[in-house]
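Example 407.
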Amino acid sequence: MTRRIDILGAGLSGLSAATILAKEGYDVHVHEIRKDSGARFDGDFQGLENWTSDTDFFDEMRDWGLNPDQFKSNDFDIIDLVHPDDEITNPKTDGVAFRVVERGTDEHCIDQGFKRMAQDAGATIHYETRKSPDECDIIAAGPKDSSAIAFGEIFHTDHPNHVTFQLNDKLAPGAYSYLIIIDGIGLICTCLWRQQKKSARYLNETIAWYEEHYELNRIPIKRVGGKGDFSIPDKYIHDGRYYVGEAGGLQDFMWGFGMRYAITSGVMAAHSITGKEDYEKQIRRKLVPLVRVSAINRFLLNRVGNRGFKMIANYWMKDQERKGDGLKFMKWIYQPGIFRRSLWPIVKLGMLRRKRLLDGRMVSRMPFRKSLSRDNWEPSSRAHEIAQEWRLMQRRGGAVSFTESDA
Ligand SMILES: Cc1cc2nc3c(=O)[nH]c(=O)nc-3n(C[C@H](O)[C@H](O)[C@H](O)COP(=O)(O)OP(=O)(O)OC[C@H]3O[C@@H](n4cnc5c(N)ncnc54)[C@H](O)[C@@H]3O)c2cc1C
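Predicted structure in complex with flavin-adenine dinucleotide:
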């Protein structure tokens, strides 16, 4: 008899597991609380990183039987890196540093590409359904709590395709902001790694900054965002259930690049069910070291402000000069030497809190950090105007898919 597999969540991790298992002949049912795959997002751009392994991620996907041509992606080999003092430099590489994909429910979005792969393989997806996790074999329901949030605005622009990554502790407390432009659509996003009241002011001020430095001719469309949950569980299989993607704490604590971990862990869970490999062992061998080093890096980042960010940006550019490849720095920061590894006990004690989740799992979780006195500043007059402009847009139907209260 065909074995039935139930998966909770039709996001990237759940659908990658579903595709592999359905191809192997399992009777796969995916249960999704929302109307469609990608509905958690609303047309925002995200970067699929290519630095945590020497193998190109799309080659890895093809080896697993997943088809990256099922969704639109744009390769990038160069970015603008904005230092905290507004100096702009250019990390670059000869290959693909990362790919920009769109999250959402439009046909070309990565979520829809994964949905097609799962359905073509024979999986059944039940949308707008509630299923108890106890009845599922794989838990792929994404983040639960908030350790950090991101707010962004999507707009029309006539600026060519482009990516900027800005390290700035004022505009993005404890983190970074970014600008992504693909085919006439732009996204300006700021990430808050410290919890704030009236978070929209950070986005308004960030937009003001980008407008001053780039010819955007911005016409706002909508505002988007989301939360990230950073916690490391004691076990990845609990009560016989496989926890994958962000539901399993497989996230990048440093920058939040969780998509690759989500897809990889979905594939690993499927391979474990088919008997090809052991999930707990593979996760600990391949992903846990990356998650741990990202947590160590986050611990260090939490201890510095703009002065530390400037040192990082300078070091990155010097490293590029020496090695002739800007991607080598990104690879290096995810491969800890003895010094960073030796910090792990301090990181566990100083940054993570033990918590028992409702399903009984024990995790070491990074709480949302409190704001600092330096996070309180007066918005600029341009930021006030942008806030006002957005209120007008909202009256005309501009949608907001994520607010502070969703965090
Ligand atoms: C604003 C923002 C920007 C980001 N940018 C990047 C980036 O640039 N690069 C990157 O790599 N990562 C980025 N990430 C992180 C990345 O989006 C996630 O790590 C990744 O989507 C996790 O995949 P997942 O399968 O675990 O969860 P998801 O892809 O979110 O899928 C989880 C699914 O489970 C569903 N679900 C939730 N609860 C239930 C339930 N009870 N029952 C049934 N279904 C349920 C959800 O609706 C959702 O469809 C970003 C995240 C945010 C919020």
